[in-house]
Write a structure and sequence with these properties.
This protein is of the alpha+beta class and 247 residues long. It folds into two domains: 61 residues, 434 Repressor (Amino-terminal Domain) (Orthogonal Bundle), CATH 1.10.260; 172 residues, Endonuclease, Chain A (2-Layer Sandwich), CATH 3.30.870. Helices cover 46% and strands 17% of the residues. It contains twelve helices and eight strands. It has an eight-stranded mixed β-sheet, sandwiched between helices. A hairpin with a 2-residue loop joins strand 5 and strand 6. Helix 2 crosses helix 3.
């Protein structure tokens, strides 16, 4: 069975079979077999290829890492747990936003707290102009999932939808900006996801609590880790179900 994840990652990064073969010290046909068959490279080769392809080993070869090692690496991926999202230090948000240069992905209902930062929208536009890929997902204001979450958090009829519309007004300058995509989702928001390159803030959601008062996790991606990758794949699944945002 072909390894389509590996094929896609190499193509996305402009890497040829020859370049990969030279970098890891194998024959070009060996690299081709890694792509076209189910053969898995040795660990030392996987590490180099994952670094070149800017993906984790567990993403490129899901069955290659032993469960025990995955568990140990997942623990290392967890940098810190915060009892509430509003306990995440302002300095951490500032650093994550400032240092991100390749990927910014945000999955929220409204995320109003982000646009309260005076330069946030300008920073996104600047990073997109410099080549970063920015993908933003908001709850569909008229969607069933938004109405249900509003009821669960006892916000009052239409309150969450109004928050989303208020947030969208701030994001309007990003409409049509190259490198920025915005979509509406109508899925159950189990977690809000804030990805900045190889770091994430995961705002878990607890029944009856608003997001600001629910626990948050600070994650840092590791090549053999599974935790960061799980949330990344979850974001991708929601993105594929979402539709272009309307303003």
């Amino acid at each position: 069975m072909p390894n389509e994840r590996l094929r896609d990652a190499l193509l996305r990064n402009g890497l040829t079979l020859e370049q990969v073969a030279m970098a890891v010290g194998v024959d070009q046909k060996t690299v081709e077999r890694w792509i076209t068959t189910s053969r898995t490279p040795y660990p030392k080769h996987r590490h180099k290829i994952a670094a070149m392809a800017r993906e984790s080993e567990t993403y490129l070869w899901p069955d290659s890492v032993a469960p025990e090692r995955k568990a140990e690496t997942a623990a290392a991926e967890l940098v810190q747990v915060f009892p509430h999202r509003n306990a995440v230090p302002v300095e951490l948000w500032d650093r994550l936003i400032k240092d991100a240069s390749e990927t910014i992905e945000i999955l929220v209902h409204a995320g109003l707290f982000l646009v309260e930062r005076p330069r946030f929208i300008k920073d996104l536009a600047t990073k997109a102009a410099a080549g970063a890929r920015i993908r933003l997902m908001f709850g569909e204001p008229g969607g069933d999932s938004v109405a249900l979450r509003g009821d669960e958090e006892q916000l009052g009829d239409g309150t969450l939808a109004a928050r989303i519309r208020n947030a969208l007004a701030s994001y309007r300058p990003l409409v049509g900006v190259d490198g920025v995509e915005m979509r509406f989702h109508n899925t159950t928001l189990y977690n809000s996801i804030f990805r900045f390159d190889d770091e994430m803030i995961i705002n878990t959601h607890v029944y009856g609590f608003q997001g600001a008062h629910a626990p948050s996790l600070h994650l840092r991606r590791l090549s053999a880790g599974d935790l960061f990758e799980t949330y990344s794949e979850s974001f991708e699944s929601v993105w594929n179900l979402a539709k272009p945002a309307t303003f």
